[in-house]
UniProtKB/TrEMBL annotation, chain A:
Family matches, as Gene3D superfamilies: 2.30.30.100
Protein name: LSM2-LSM8 complex subunit LSM8
Single GO MF descriptor: mRNA binding
SUPFAM superfamilies membership: Sm-like ribonucleoproteins (SSF50182)
Keyword RNA-binding: yes
Keywords assigned by UniProt, alphabetized: mRNA processing, mRNA splicing, Nucleus, Ribonucleoprotein, RNA-binding, Spliceosome
Family the entry assigns: Belongs to the snRNP Sm proteins family.
Main function: Plays role in pre-mRNA splicing as component of the U4/U6-U5 tri-snRNP complex that is involved in spliceosome assembly, and as component of the precatalytic spliceosome (spliceosome B complex). The heptameric LSM2-8 complex binds specifically to the 3'-terminal U-tract of U6 snRNA.
Quaternary organization: LSm subunits form a heteromer with a doughnut shape.
Subcellular location: Nucleus
Single biological process term from Gene Ontology: mRNA splicing, via spliceosome
UniProt GO cellular component terms: precatalytic spliceosome; U4/U6 x U5 tri-snRNP complex; U6 snRNP
Classification via Pfam families: LSM
UniProtKB/TrEMBL annotation, chain B:
Entry GO CC: catalytic step 2 spliceosome; Lsm1-7-Pat1 complex; P-body; precatalytic spliceosome; U4/U6 x U5 tri-snRNP complex; U6 snRNP
GO terms under biological process: mRNA splicing, via spliceosome
Keywords: mRNA processing, mRNA splicing, Nucleus, Ribonucleoprotein, RNA-binding, Spliceosome
Native species: Collybia nuda
Name of protein: LSM complex subunit LSm2
Localization terms from the record: Nucleus
């Protein structure tokens, strides 16, 4: 089983169908990969500016919207200065 | 069901998953489930310069519905066996 077990209480990066990237602490999940994130922030990427973090608080994401959930290595993540990162936003999903 | 079985035989092999948002991720296949959701370890995003979003991510869960392709290590896939199993499965569906 390829469940999300092991991600609970960890800092995770969620990539959504529309290309948004949300980081948060995984509070819970279910079979349909619905996910609850606590203390979550959206990371907005752009070419002209550094990454902007928008606080979202407690967030429930429907499983249909999930593309990818990645465990964040907090040491590595804190070493990155987001204000200097310039990148195109992630593409939305196209079926 | 057949493809699910194929994936199960490929655990701990290196695969490259291309997603429907044009992101390609290489990693060690850790597990698969019936929706073909995939767990990858030790991941690397192709063209990391353009996609720095996952720099701090070392393992991930990919939803099966957003996978476009999976590149498999050909030396670990027995195509002859796969063909035979496909025919067997097709035959069993005709009988029903």
């Amino acid at each position: 089983m390829s469940s999300l077990q092991g991600y609970v209480d960890r800092r995770v990066l969620l990539i959504l169908q529309d290309g948004r990237a949300i980081v948060g602490t995984m509070a819970g999940y279910d079979q349909k990969s619905n996910v609850v994130l606590s203390d979550s922030k959206e990371r907005v990427y752009s070419i002209d500016e550094g990454v902007e973090e928008i606080p979202l608080g407690l967030y429930l994401v429907k499983g249909d919207m999930v593309v990818l959930i990645g465990e964040i290595d907090e040491v590595l993540d804190q070493a990155v200065d987001l204000a200097t990162v310039r990148a195109e936003p992630i593409m939305p999903i196209r079926y | 069901m057949l493809i699910f079985s194929v994936f199960k035989t490929l655990t701990d092999q290196q695969v490259t998953v291309e997603l429907k948002n044009d992101l390609s991720i290489t990693g060690i296949l850790k597990s698969v489930d019936q929706f073909l959701n995939i767990r990858l370890d030790n991941i690397k995003v192709l063209d990391e310069g353009r996609h720095p979003h996952m720099m701090a991510v070392k393992n991930c869960f990919i939803r099966g519905s957003v996978v476009r392709y999976v590149q498999l290590p050909s030396e670990h896939v027995d195509t002859q066996l796969l063909e035979d199993a496909t025919r067997r499965e097709a035959l069993s569906q005709v009988k029903r």
